[in-house]
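Here comes an entry:

___
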Amino acid sequence: MSWLHLGCRAAMPPSTWPERTSSTLSEAYYQPSLTAEYDEDSPGGDFDFFSNLVTKWEAAARLPGDSTRQVVVRSGVVLGRGGGAIGHMLLPFRLGLGGPIGSGHQFFPWIHIGDLAGILTHALEANHVHGVLNGVAPSSATNAEFAQALGAALGHRAFIPVPSTIVQAVFGRERAIMLLEGQKVIPRRTLATGYQYSFPELGAALKEIVA
């Protein structure tokens, strides 16, 4: 789980920094659902261990008073080269052994690492941005669609599912929930602030990462 604090105008004393940006996990904050759609105003953060943890992180990052412009970016699964989520998936997919996790129907909130960095930079530089931003791509995908797109980017089919019992045995119950149950998260406010995505579509994002 990533926990980022970025302040601008670093030459100034910390007590006078005019803004703060932090990042937490959207996939842990919003309750898993096959049908619900979540934007930045949707409730969450109070239904299990990870959601409560995210709530505590956001509370710890919040500064008292109104003199500081504050932004929280709730990121999806970050996709990029050199490790992270993709690093654990590449080998089986390159061998043609990849596929959806569990049923594959669960949503998979994702974002290219370049866009996560872009949203954080946008939040720091644009004075009109404040509050919560969902750091996810505007095009949603299910886990099965993600598996198909990754297989296509690597030139392989992705049809071998990973049973939920194996996921639970390997990762434990709490972590397995984050893989087996997803959420459809929409970056409504992120888009409304004017941020322009470099990788809004999953297929193009994955092709850039595995190239």
